[in-house]
Amino acid sequence: VIIKTPEQIKMIRIAGKILANVAEKIKEAIQEGISLKELDKLAKRLIEEAGAEPAFLGYQPYGAVKSYPASICASINEIVVHGIPNGYKLKSGDILSVDLGVTYRGFIADGAFTVGIEEISGQAKNLINTTRQALTIGIKECKSGKTLGDIGWAINNFETSRGFKDIKGLSGHGVGIELHEDPPVFNEGQKNTGLRLKPGMVLALEPMVSAGDPYIVQLPDDSYATRDKSPAAHFEHTVLITEKEPEILTK
Predict the structure, then answer these.
(1) How far apart are CA 212 and CA 149, in angstroms?
(2) How far is the C-alpha of 34 from the C-alpha of 58, rounded, in Å?
(3) Residue ranges in the chain whose pLDDT is less than 50
(4) 184: phi then psi, degrees, rounded to nearest 5
(5) Cα separation of 66 and 249, whole Å?
(6) Which uninterrupted H or E stretch holds 132?
(7) DSSP, residue by residue, 23-49
(8) Closest Cα partner for 54 from 41, 64, 38?
(9) HEC profile for 81-104?
(10) How far is the C-alpha of 109 from the C-alpha of 94, rounded, in Å?
(11) What is the pLDDT at residue 64?
(12) Are residues 110 and 101 in contact, defined by beta-carbon separation less than 8 angstroms?
């Protein structure tokens, strides 16, 4: 687990600020009729105009057959994560999860959000709100002396109390120097177990929540979907552990 230096944190903070600004502009552009590919092009242009690079573009994680071909992940409805932006045009009733990473002078921030397109079902609204709130609740546990188990317990306990299920087999992670670093940050766990948090850790927390089946299947394009095709939502922030309150670097 990498404890970041003040100089490294300064750079990750800049990457996080760029990511937050780009995410807001992408949200403004999301509307019925726009294609996922158009959103991807917009993200790439905005990130590069800010003097940074898309962290996902060309990224090839361990075990992957090929590198990722886009600047964002755009995951529709039952797709949980890693949806590759294509010519699909958004329509009313869809829910869209956008995941993006920003590299600034070699330092990385990671974030994600989910939105509904026009008229979405009450269940979809509840799913999105629950996942957003689960992230906020997880972040509150990101304090020096707490544990990764505290984070996972808080997230999972809230999700299940609202009638939803945590996606199995996917997790958050350390971030900053690499896109995916140790430790894995699971969205379930037991209080006071696992790695103890220390100032200087930078973690990407990312609840991924299903309205139905918590199990996933990998599709031919390497995206992950809920096994029963029920809708899923995804929110993520890059968070710095400090001596006091956690600092959200992608807000």
Answers:
(1) 24
(2) 24
(3) none
(4) -65, 140
(5) 30
(6) helix 122-140
(7) HHHHHHH--TT-BHHHHHHHHHHHHHH
(8) 41
(9) ECCCCCCCECCCCCEEEEEEEEEE
(10) 27
(11) 72
(12) yes
Enclosing H/E stretch for 74: strand 72-76
DSSP per-residue codes, 168-236: TT--EEE-SSSSSEEEEE-S---TT-SPBP-TT-EEEE--EEESS---EEE-TTS-EEETT---EEE-B
Residues contacting residue 49 through CB under 8 Å, at least 6 positions apart: none
pLDDT value for 138: 98
Tokens 């100032």 identify what position?
199
Sign of the C-alpha dihedral computed for residues 204, 111, 44 and 72 taken in this order: positive
- The C-alpha atoms of residue 16 and residue 20 are separated, in whole angstroms, by 6
Q: Using CA of residue 19, residue 171, residue 118, residue 93, what is the dihedral sign?
A: positive
